[in-house]
Structure formats: C-alpha cells, structure tokens
Amino acid sequence: MTAFADIDTPAVLVDLDVAEANVSRFQAYCDLHGFRNRPHIKTHKLPVLAKLQTAAGAAGITCQKISEAEAMIAEGGVTDVLLTYNIVGSAKLARLRALAGRVRLSVVADSGEVVKGLGAAFADAPDPLTVLVECDTGAHRCGVASPAAARDLALEIEATDGLRFGGLMTYPPVGGTAAVQAFMVEATGLCEAAGLPVERISSGGAPDMWRAHEAPIVTEYRTGTYVYNDRSLVERGVCTWADCALTVLATVVSVPAPDRAVIDAGTKVLTSDLLGLDGHGHVLGRPDLRIDQLSEEHGRLVADGPVGLRVGDRVRIVPNHCCVVSNMVDSVVAVRGERIEGPLAVAARGQVR
Amino acid sequence: MTAFADIDTPAVLVDLDVAEANVSRFQAYCDLHGFRNRPHIKTHKLPVLAKLQTAAGAAGITCQKISEAEAMIAEGGVTDVLLTYNIVGSAKLARLRALAGRVRLSVVADSGEVVKGLGAAFADAPDPLTVLVECDTGAHRCGVASPAAARDLALEIEATDGLRFGGLMTYPPVGGTAAVQAFMVEATGLCEAAGLPVERISSGGAPDMWRAHEAPIVTEYRTGTYVYNDRSLVERGVCTWADCALTVLATVVSVPAPDRAVIDAGTKVLTSDLLGLDGHGHVLGRPDLRIDQLSEEHGRLVADGPVGLRVGDRVRIVPNHCCVVSNMVDSVVAVRGERIEGPLAVAARGQVR
C-alpha cells in the first residue's frame, strides 16, 4: 500500500499526527491541573498507542477486560493497569492472578461478592491486590450507591486477606462533575474517619474531560475517546472535526437517485451506536449529506438537493463513536495526512473476556 | 471446555440442533413451493454451516463481500456463490476475477458504471461473468428504480464483452412481497420483449421468508437470519424463542439496586442494533427483565420489581439481531442443548472488503 488512492475500502484510518496532538494536549491539561492521566485503551486497542500515551506522561492505562490488558502489556512499555471492571468467576480470577505477576495492577469492586472472589484468588499471593471501590455518582450502571456504602466496602476490602484498599473510582454521568466532587468528598471523609486513607480517586468520561479540574478531589482521570475524538464529542463542543484522528474511508457503490447514494460502509464498520445523535456519522467536507440509514454492509447518504456523488467516489466519515469502530476491524491504516504509514493490527479487537 | 458451567462469559452460543432444524424447515418450504434457497452466510460466517445449508439442498450461497466468499469456499463444499453487492474498484475487481476461477459465480449491478467496471475486468476471461440487475422494489437502498431501467441495464450487460445477463435481483422492504411480484412481472415482460430471457429472479429478506411463495415469479430466495433466528423475528411472529439457535451467555457482575443488575455483555457483543425494538435483547426465561441500556462492556437489566439475580448468576440472551453478533467474536461455542460440541472459528468475521 503506497498511495492513499490505493487503500481498499471500507477502511478505518488513524491519523497519527492528530492522535499524537490529542494525547499531548490532554496530558498537558492533566499536568497543568495536577492530576494523573490514565487513558482507557478500549478506544484504540493498539499497543503502540498505549505506549505513546504512557511515554507522554500517563500514569498507566485503563482496561475494561483482562484480555485487553494481556494484549496491551505483551509488547512491553506499559507497566501499570487499572481494570475498571468487577472480575467474577474462577476462570477470570485465575487470569487476574497471573496478570498481577506481570504488571502493577489495580481493580475495582462494588459488592461483597466481588471482594470475596478477589480475596479467595489472592489470599496466598505474594503481594496484596489493590482494590478500589466503584461508586455510583449518578450514571446508575455499577457502583455502590452512597458514600457510607463506599466506606463499608472499603473496610471489607481492607479486612480481606490478599487485598488492600486502594481508593475510590467512579464512571460519572455526563455533566456529573459536581456530583463526583460531592460524593467523593463525603466518602473520603467517612473512610478517613474509619482510619482508611484514600490514596487515589479515579474519575473519567470523555464528554467532561476538559472540566475534570472542576472536581479537584479527583486524583486521576480516565478517558479513552480523547485519543481519536468522534462525532459525539464534536457535537458536544468538546473538540473540532480537525481533532478527529479516526475516520472511515468508504466508496460510493450506487447513486440510484439524484438525492441518494450508497457507500460500502454499514453497521459492520460504523456500528449502530447513536450516542443520542441523529444519523450515523459525519461526511467530512460535506455537511449537507446525512447518513440516514445503515444496514450491515451499506450506508445510505441523502441530501435535500443532489448528492453530487458518482459511483467510485470516496468519502471520509467521522463516526458517531470511535471506540466501537476500532473494534470492528482486524487492522487500521495509520496515516499522516495523506501519507500512509501502514497497517496496525488491532491487538485487542474482540477481546470481550 | 467440558461442562456448560465452565464456559467463560460473555460467549456466543450456537445450538446446532436448533440451527439444523431451522435449515431443514426452510429448505422444505422452498422445496414445497418450487423455488431455490440461496442462504446468506453473513449471518453465521461459518464454513461448516454453509456446507450444511448446501448439503440440505440450497442451490448455493449468498455473500455480501468478496472476502466472505473467499472464506466460505476455502474448505470446499460450496460451489455456487451470488455476490449481492456492486463490486467497484480495481482491487476488488481483480479479486472477483480470481474468485470466478474457483466457483460458479454471479454478481449484481445497478448502474452502467458498475457494469463497465465488471466488463473491463472480465473482457478477456475464459467464461463470461453472470450479472443480475439489482432492482429497487421499495427498500430505497440500491437498485434501478423501474422495470424499464432494469431492462435497459440488462441490455447493457448483455452487450458488454465478458458479461452475460443472468436475471433480476431485489432486496425488498419488509412487507414488500406484492411489490416484488408486480415489479418483476413487468420487468420480465420488458426483458423478454427485448429478446432477453430472465433465467433467474432472486428475492430475499428474513421477515417475509414464510410469505416468499406469495411472489410466485421469484425463482430463488435469500435469507440469512433463518439459520439462527433472533428477537426481531420472534417479535414479528416469524419464529418462536425455541427456534433461536444463537444466544449470548452472560454473567451478572453487579446488582447495585434491587431492581437493577449489570451483566458482562455490552455493545461489543450484543451490538447497538435495535431493528425497531425497545431494549437490547430478550433474557430467556425472564420476560420480566428488560435490557434497557448497553455500554461497551456492560448491559443493564431492569425490572419493575426485584430482578432476583445475584452476582455470578448467568443469563442467556436472544439478541435483537443475530447477524451482527456473530461478527463480534472470533469464535462461537457450538452446543446441543447443554452439551458442548466445542468452539467454531467465525472464519469470515470482520471481512468487510
């Protein structure tokens, strides 16, 4: 693959110049405000970018699944992993134990059942496993519901052989910065009153990443999307189209009517993720076009007037949600502008366990 | 992997007993009504099931992408492929030419541009390529818009060196059986009046598969979903839960509130496909539960009353859309009831080109 025009479609392109600038910019923001950056690698699933993020100053990486962590540390360069997921079941606990021997590891828990499982797996480990309490600050997914419950679970962790209490963690709702601050101040006070120092308070989420400093009690921030950005973040005013490092290159395969064209990218590349938006992505340079419908291998472009496209034309699309698009393909094409660097294998693609 | 309880989650399970029954039942229906069955393999992407479908009596298989066809014929047992996609661009046309040397191949076209590309690639081929005209019978995706346009494109195909006109093809809208019949009767009449016999009329779509005989002009039917079935087809009355061969096995990782539980399957297994439904799947045996929210690795179960689940419990989910779920994982687990047959590699997973 030597020329941009030779890239076969659909293809997921990653502009490394843009990604590197995104990594530097958010790292500088974290450094300015004095909190640690712990990027979520679910967005790119590429060891080379995990190493880039770490080299730029990240304190470590965040993974959702053990298999993601295994893939990210295989090449070296990453030595600190937070798994923001309740690890449940004997198969995964055995893998977690093995992972702890290879990297500085911390995990989360939001219930006594999860703590008991972790404790059983690490009771005879050479070093205790660091466990943060996951707190629900309004997203209503996982997490203990109150600061008092956070303190109680922290005490349970600290009392469990093989485990040590490592702090508090939350995945807040969009716009939840103030709620994070309030919850964490109260939970920290309760923990400290119970004799447990809170060494780390981890929050995250891309939509509010530039407001992270408004919850000053937070000591580390997790965001994945910042490395690529996407339409959901542009539409929320978090970044610009020029900051979007991941695009999908597609070819027009049909223009059945003047106001309609069909491209060779459907849900099996762009996915059906809407994130509250209308339509399925943004065609760069063509704000008049809407991707109004996707089937598995077709995307439909419509316009109020003529689409002005011909069979064989190519378009570049900023997807609604970049994190899920990386996961659809075995490799992305690294580019710098229109210069091609080559394919990058998405090492942790499909690593759901 | 020896026991059902040892399957690590999330896992995509395929019950081969159910799949085999589904294949037999629809084949018997096609045989009864005297049309050919040409299953779409995008649903399973498994050579073993393509061979099963062919052995059961299918006239060949349908693929959307060249790479799917390459993966399906690699093991043998499949000798006839229809590619229901406009093939555009030199890289794909070269692969199409190579594919034509390995299998009985037909493709579609809906424009002069596509026909010209195919003709250039096959002008010096030992045998002409069979090209069907894709017709828009109301789905407004690809396809020529009128029977007269179908006739005109058929003449263009027949006049192109390296190509031969092979018939008409459509992907109709749901409920479009009568529209298919009307369009195809008119188009066939026009083609025959122009001296072009229409040897094959191909329609498809899972929602109307049991009504295929209501468009008696159709000579072959394409459906993918029938091999597995899914929630979208149960909700439309096309099949029952017991006919659903593909399920997602997931583990409860959190029960943060009495009316809420969280499982380890999110959009990276179940996908965000809604197909017009509310919620993200059906929990077998628990019609009181709703999967009201997915993030990438979490699924949220809610109920009006207590969810009655504990951390570590497992649930089996019939997804909204089975075809996209197969594509999320490198392998599925073949089962017969609760007996495990073993993993099956999803050979054509992620084959988007």
TrEMBL record, chains A, B:
| GO BP terms, alphabetized | D-serine catabolic process
* Keyword Lyase found: yes
| GO MF annotations in UniProt | D-serine ammonia-lyase activity
Query: Residue ranges of the D-serine dehydratase-like domain?
Result: 245-336
Q: What protein am I looking at?
A: Alanine racemase
Family membership noted in the UniProt record: Belongs to the DSD1 family.
Superkingdom of origin: Bacteria
Q: Which Pfam families match?
A: Ala_racemase_N, D-ser_dehydrat
Could you tell me the keywords of this UniProt record?
Lyase
Species of the source: Thalassobaculum fulvum
